[in-house]
Amino acid sequence: MLELKSVGAGYSAFQALFDISLDVRHGEAVAVIGPNGAGKTTLMRVISGLIRPQKGAIAFEGRDLALTPAHRIVELGIAHVPENRRLFARMTVEDNLRMGAFMPAARARFRQRLDFVFDLFPRLRERRDQIAGTMSGGEQQMCAIGRALMSEPKLLLLDEPSAGLAPVIVQQVFDLVRRIRSGGLTVLIVEQNVQQVLKVVDRAYLLEAGGIRTAGTSAELLESKSIREAYLGV
Amino acid sequence: MQIFDIYLLEALINGILLGGVLALLALGLNLIFGVIDVVWICYAELIMIGMYAIYFLFTVYHLPFPLAALIAVAAVGALGALLHYLVIEPLLNAAPINQLLATGGVLFFLQSAATVAFGIDFRNAGIRLPVLNVAEMYISYARLLAFGAALVAMVVVYLFLTRTYIGTAIRAIAQDRQIMPLMGVDSRRVYFVTSAVGGALAGLAATLLVLQYDVHPFVGLSFGPITFMICVLGGLGNMIGGFVAAFIFAEIISLGGLYSDLEWGYVLAFAFFIVMMFVRPQGLLARRS
Amino acid sequence: MTMRSYFPWVAGAVLVAVPFVYHSPYPLHIMIQILIWSFAYTSWSVMGRFGLVSLGHGGFMGIGAYVTALLWNHVGLSPWLGIPVALLAAGALALIVGWPCFRFRITGHYFALVTLALSGIVLQVITATRDYTGGSLGYTPERHKAGESALLALQFTDKETWYLIALGVWAAGLYIWHLVDRSMSRYALEAISEDEDAAAATGVNVTKEKLRITVLSAVMTAFAGALYCQYQMFISPDTVSGISVSLQMVFAVVVGGIYVSLGPTAGAIITLLLAETLRISFGTKAVGWDNLVYGVLLVLFIIFLPKGILGSLMEVRWLRRQATSVIPGGSEGAAANGDALRPDPSLRSG
């Protein structure tokens, strides 16, 4: 479904990603784990078009993403929940969700999508007129995911969904990821909370210093000595 | 004493009427600043062009006023979009101050283009609207009309910003422009639409001002500075703040003018502005951070 | 090296010698205008180069001109005393407006708009007090003795004297520019313009540094206004105050080059000669054409040549020297580092 081949990318002054190759198959949940500054967020941004790759190729269902304008990538079916949620903090929950359905195809189905998201997060239905920035961190994360789901994506990119949340809420967020994928959605998730995320996904890539160090199924990685020592603290 | 009270009330009412028009002026500027983060120094000059458009369409070519107004609104809207396309877009990644100065160049250009094309004569559209006499107070019908139209326009803009997708995007982009592509929004298009709406608001302001004032190439200088002060006092990009500040300024001008003439009302408003800079430098309704 | 250090003296001597060998009034008039406006533009760039973009300098210039003229006409105070009073007034106004701005971190757009309002205020006050200032019709300082020069009244009928005065003031303006350029304040102000918080964290008194440069710039600009008034013997709100004059200053500096000492002078020469050429070729129909061309040029300059003509020329020269200095023994390249133009560090590695 999604395929990256030897992708290199970065910002004007430095390169953050070197020769990244990975793929996500239909219906899978895949994680990218790794330490701070490894380039995980950059990787997500390259996929959703916020940053253009300098080298390599990115294809989504056979379409070359490098040639697609950033604002058209959503229309292909990729929704990105950015790091730190990035809600429109001074707008209401409903306005935020409306923004998620901005593209013409989603606008037409706005009512259905809204019901879908509200059924998934009954909490948001109660808070639909609340200013997004005044909600708790967990509620904001729900709103951010809900906003991404409004566009009826095929692939959901989640960037550090558990960051900055209380442990109880972190648990809820991962439950949520599980629910979302059981609905048939393909998920690519970036996390630092390795222990938790490996329980939710099928496969994972370990990203270190801008390159892919290891890849494997969750079970394999949970067994791996180096990962256990470096990331699981056992 | 009795007569004085009536003058005072009349000045108060005229202040409110003026406030409506000033609020409309501030709205266009705030909209553009809030979304694109650019101050159009030449905003009042766009209004001047709109006033000329109406003057020619209505007085010289004898089009009905509503039609002339409609054409002027559309023309200035197009001018706003053109300004964005030709001047702002190439400078979107330049230093903010360069964007500001470039619109200063446009100010020069529009002013002198009008001078070259129309000369420096004062022209009056020759619309004589009656003056209402209510309880011994004289209230100009033109002002009443301008006030009403300005309020209606602001309500329309409010509905546009809250009820439409593109309007919601305009509000959203002011908060976080980087993630707009993730929503499937083409920022360039939103900027373009915003500039056109901002221009159209200037065109509407022109329609209302031409009822009360003569047109000349430098007419923009008589309400440009006051508009900028309103926006700064209300907080740049803060539309509600601008609305409140507009009425405060209008009352100061109108009541200040009661004691001598309107020019001193303006001087008083300027002085008030400087004092407010000490008291609330980040604007009336500044968000406490 | 020796050529370079002698050059300013030779150029200065030539400029001083001009009125003694050349008496044609019209070119002298143009040169005086250029010198006075060059000084005004230099005054603006003293603070403008640090990112403090003021649109209020038209106001300072107007204060310099009007206070001097009003004191002379109404109180009979000689410009020798009137000008210092005018400069004090401009300095005080700069303090009043500058202090809250800098204290409360009003920068960028906000600062430009606040100062723009200042231009508007001065213009409005001059117009509103038309009983004293003549309003928009303009104002003329009274002649001390008709047709005669009078040192006491700072009125001279001959262009030669004015040329020398203007030349002296202009040179003093450049000298001040260089003093600022060599001072510690320059580093503080550059740091402030890069990142105010970081500068404050390293112990720079942000408010004080900004206020000092602003007051200096305002006082210099007011002096230019006073000089203009004494030379022209006629001032009107739209030639010495208001937003148009403020923008005109910014425009000339941007065209000439904001980061080089002679940039404002280059800007004055270009803009005044342009206006004069247009005036002569269009005759009375010229009204508006000069500003039309200014406006278009200003936009084009900001988009395509933001460093200004002189700034860009110096950059080209600098790059060329860098290229030659790669050859062993090219010591000239090192000397070029001392130039007023601060090269982009990224160029250095290339």
UniProtKB/TrEMBL annotation, chain A:
<dbReference type="InterPro" id="IPR027417">
    <property type="entry name" value="P-loop_NTPase"/>
</dbReference>
<comment type="similarity">
    <text>Belongs to the ABC transporter superfamily.</text>
</comment>
<keyword id="KW-0547">Nucleotide-binding</keyword>
<keyword id="KW-0067">ATP-binding</keyword>
<dbReference type="InterPro" id="IPR052156">
    <property type="entry name" value="BCAA_Transport_ATP-bd_LivF"/>
</dbReference>
<dbReference type="GO" id="GO:0015658">
    <property type="term" value="F:branched-chain amino acid transmembrane transporter activity"/>
</dbReference>
<keyword id="KW-0029">Amino-acid transport</keyword>
<protein>
    <submittedName>
        <fullName>ABC transporter ATP-binding protein</fullName>
    </submittedName>
</protein>
<dbReference type="Pfam" id="PF00005">
    <property type="entry name" value="ABC_tran"/>
</dbReference>
<dbReference type="InterPro" id="IPR003593">
    <property type="entry name" value="AAA+_ATPase"/>
</dbReference>
<dbReference type="GO" id="GO:0016887">
    <property type="term" value="F:ATP hydrolysis activity"/>
</dbReference>
<dbReference type="GO" id="GO:0005524">
    <property type="term" value="F:ATP binding"/>
</dbReference>
<keyword id="KW-0813">Transport</keyword>
<feature type="domain" description="ABC transporter">
    <location>
        <begin position="2"/>
        <end position="234"/>
    </location>
</feature>
<dbReference type="GO" id="GO:0015807">
    <property type="term" value="P:L-amino acid transport"/>
</dbReference>
<dbReference type="InterPro" id="IPR003439">
    <property type="entry name" value="ABC_transporter-like_ATP-bd"/>
</dbReference>
UniProtKB/TrEMBL annotation, chain C:
<feature type="transmembrane region" description="Helical">
    <location>
        <begin position="77"/>
        <end position="98"/>
    </location>
</feature>
<feature type="transmembrane region" description="Helical">
    <location>
        <begin position="287"/>
        <end position="305"/>
    </location>
</feature>
<dbReference type="InterPro" id="IPR043428">
    <property type="entry name" value="LivM-like"/>
</dbReference>
<dbReference type="GO" id="GO:0015658">
    <property type="term" value="F:branched-chain amino acid transmembrane transporter activity"/>
</dbReference>
<feature type="transmembrane region" description="Helical">
    <location>
        <begin position="34"/>
        <end position="57"/>
    </location>
</feature>
<keyword id="KW-1133">Transmembrane helix</keyword>
<feature type="region of interest" description="Disordered">
    <location>
        <begin position="330"/>
        <end position="350"/>
    </location>
</feature>
<dbReference type="GO" id="GO:0005886">
    <property type="term" value="C:plasma membrane"/>
</dbReference>
<feature type="transmembrane region" description="Helical">
    <location>
        <begin position="247"/>
        <end position="275"/>
    </location>
</feature>
<feature type="transmembrane region" description="Helical">
    <location>
        <begin position="6"/>
        <end position="22"/>
    </location>
</feature>
<keyword id="KW-0812">Transmembrane</keyword>
<feature type="transmembrane region" description="Helical">
    <location>
        <begin position="213"/>
        <end position="235"/>
    </location>
</feature>
<dbReference type="InterPro" id="IPR001851">
    <property type="entry name" value="ABC_transp_permease"/>
</dbReference>
<dbReference type="Pfam" id="PF02653">
    <property type="entry name" value="BPD_transp_2"/>
</dbReference>
<feature type="transmembrane region" description="Helical">
    <location>
        <begin position="110"/>
        <end position="129"/>
    </location>
</feature>
<keyword id="KW-1003">Cell membrane</keyword>
<keyword id="KW-0472">Membrane</keyword>
<protein>
    <submittedName>
        <fullName>Branched-chain amino acid ABC transporter permease</fullName>
    </submittedName>
</protein>
<feature type="transmembrane region" description="Helical">
    <location>
        <begin position="161"/>
        <end position="180"/>
    </location>
</feature>
